[in-house]
Amino acid sequence: MGSTPQPRRGNTRQRIQDVALELFAEQGYEKTSLREISERLDVTKAALYYHFKTKEDILVSIFDDLSRPIEELIEWGRNQPRTLETKKEILRRYSAALAAAAPLFRFMQENQATVRDLSIGKTMKDRALGLIDLINEPDASLTDQVRCFTALFSIHAGMFALKDIEGDPEEKRGATLEVAFDLITRTHGPESAE
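User: That's the sequence. What structure does it adopt?
Assistant: Structure tokens below.
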């Protein structure tokens, strides 16, 4: 009746994910142990095991949670007409999803070899190919295929390449989107350009 409600299980899971990602970023995935994660959380290893059995389980859960908007974007894009405006909206949403999951994608960028060897590496590659398919025309020339790939990559790379440049993060994100829009607009005839 007058007792304090118990924290939800999801809160502990989220704390584990946050601390693990922090440690992975600080000292690398390979050098981080479950013991260090439990010590930083000030919980027993058994409490940690209740939620996650391995470091990879933790990383996969972080990846699944933070990259879900990209999976939803691909599903949304498959049900839209292949117009220039749809393609721009895909790029806008991709940019927002990357910004929302910046710590994870920064970790993945800095630990590419590790990520490639884990199960999330293939999933990330499949999602990237799915996004490229959505902004590419089936009969596109090789040059236009490169433009589509570069448009998507510019958003992804811009997050990392521009992080040390002075300026407002939203302005930098807007600049990468502008470049991506320029590239994708060139894949449409002049009558389609907006």
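The two ends are 61 Å apart (CA to CA).
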